[in-house]
Amino acid sequence: MRLHTKLMLGMSILIISLGIILEYTFTNIMETKLKTEMGDQALSLAQSISNMPTIKEAFSAKNPAAIIQPIVEKIRKQVDAEFIVIGNRNEVRYSHPNPARIGQKMVGGDNDEVFKGKSVVSESIGTLGPSLRGKAPIFSNGNVIGVVSVGFLQKEIHHDVVKIQRKIFVATLIVLVGGLLAAQLISLNIKRAIFGLEPKEIAWMYQEKHAIIESIHEGIIAIDTNGRMTVVNETAHKILKEPLDILLRGKKIEDALENTHLLDVVETGQAEYDQEIFIHGEVYLANRIPIFGRNGQVIGAVASFRNKSELSKLLQELSHVKAYAEGLRAQTHEYSNRLYTLLGLIQLGSYKEAIEFISKEVDFAQGFIHFLMKEIPDPIIAGFILGKVSLASELKIHFLVDRESSFQDVPKEINRETLVTIIGNLINNAFDAVRDNGKEEKNVTLFLTDLGKELIIEVEDNGKGISLADQERIFQAGFTTKNTVSNAGIGLSLVQKAIRDLEGYVTLSSEKGEGTIFTVAIPKSRGCLHEEEPRYRSVNC
Length: 541
Known about the structure:
single chain, Heat Shock Protein 90, 3 domains, alpha+beta, 15 strands, Beta-Lactamase
């Protein structure tokens, strides 16, 4: 059933029910009130007639009815009573609206208390029908000599009650029509406020929204214009380190999280994207968006929070994929060139030179690969370095892996992808440094060693070097000295984070115009380095 129909039906039932209750209540009240008023009126009139001297004296006459009937009928017509009957101790009538019934015995059987000297109000059925009677005794010398009975028919009371019922019915009908019109207006306003949706649709959308919000990996917090939280998902609870059983909804945003700038977004109506915020010592990227109402006014704001380290990890994975792709492309290009050289020698008939060329290439490749397999047995690291060798060949860079390198004793606990991130970004940084060094020789050397308690990674280049001013900022995210390179300023910041995760440190030795050496030390066991050991050291040559 639609909301509009429910409202109309509900309003109709309510108004009709109220009308029935009011009619029943007022009918009973008015009927009781009318009976009381008529009873009091009848009793008062009966008492007044019973005290009339003329009536009392008439009882001693030969024909009391001849004296009493004219007097009583005149009074009855003046007060508009249904009947006034006077009878003696034997209940014989001396007066009656119907003269034919004078002399007959009174009907009703309600005179016993009156003959005891009491005035009463009673309901009984007489010759004229059900009536409400006021009865009073007639005294003479202290003795009850007769009774006065003044009555009003109950059908007159019922007639007055019916008039009241009709008025209540008309009033109820008017209220019903007005209520239906009000229900119509209310339903239209409600439908407009809820965008024409039905309650079932709203309930379904609420459940759907709740499921969507809870399925989002990011923390979601929404506030109203007063800064009170209206939505806080499970991830946001975890970020704020608040148990799920604690209700945050309805609380001020400042009580749960400081410096959110959500209230600023509410005031300005301007969205903010990818803003860093510290929450319990961790860096999160926050997006803040205003919520606009139907009239275009800001009615709240919503913020999403994502741990920056997760984005860094994603960037690392993307850089690995990019490095692998570049390595494969370089290797393909390099071997393509060699195949063309071999094809040319064969076509020229220089078979001896072709055989020597092949032997030389095979010896070099097998020797280098044998060296990598022996000294760097980890396939992930060795394969990555091999790809960089191919890339360097394509870029006309002399990339040398020091034959004194040894990386055999790398603990299983150390993440290989993190090591690849460190080595790869340092090599990429060195390649970029030598490509525009202005020298004929573009040399990059990689040295790896696992002797002692630390893993040592050293990358040296003969680039232009790094100034002292830049050395203090080189590891900041987004800082770069390469003005023409897009997406620069990320690699070294990823290196620093990876080293921090492995509890190591990095030293930088550079001389302007001569080159740079990055040296990374990573403990084989957690906690081996002293706490005062700096994560970064700059050593100027």
